[in-house]
Amino acid sequence: MTVNRELWRRAISERTAPRWACPTCLSGHLRLNSDEDLRCSETAESAKLRLYEPWEPEWIKYVFVAMLRCDNSDCNESVCTSGVGRVEQFIDHENVQIEYVDQFYPKWVSPSPRLISIPEEAATLLGDSLGRCFSNAWGDFAGAGNHLRKAVEILIEHFESENNLDRGKKKLHDRIIALRPICGDVSDKLLAIKWIGNSGSHIDDLSQDDIFDALDILEWVLSELFDNTKRKIDLLTARINEKKGPLSKQGPPQDIPAD
Ligand SMILES: [Zn+2]
Question: What's the rounded mean pLDDT across residues 39-66?
């Protein structure tokens, strides 16, 4: 899987939120439960534009805050978001008329839904950095880049410690390169994420697509390093093949002819 860019860019309307998974239980979805959960206000500049003659509803601009809640009754997590809004035109084909609808786009969400899949061991290791990266990935792209770089640093420290490597006074770049003989491909991918993170530190020209590109790569890295599904399946396969039958069957391997 990669970042579902279309899903995360969907707008919130006054009554409904997109089907975003809850960041806490991961199984529920975030909802607007009442009219009070979203508050918006027209910007001063937008209000002034109403004085000009060819004014159209689509010139309206808002700021908004909203409280979303998880629909899993065992969780009930609350998520706060804020951002900007505008009026968009929709064609009602059934009634052959034009409708104007307020649409709201988050610039910040906390706690944010996980924008990529994270194996649990990786979530324990990188939780804080990734959580901050996800919260910023909606609007503060330089901030998100900085937290991604921090996540790369934590991963590198983890592997240096596991492999008894001395980090010395090496720069992050050289420490990633030093891991190449151990991590292979993963080292190159961490380098790519670091380049994007560096841009967040030095210049303010990262886009949301840059952050999503880095998250796509990071998701692959975390799956490669921490997802032990393949290891579990390999072990299960070996045990079944050794037993030549289902594991629930008692006794030594049967001499069953191969079909
Ligand atoms: Zn939940």
Answer: 93
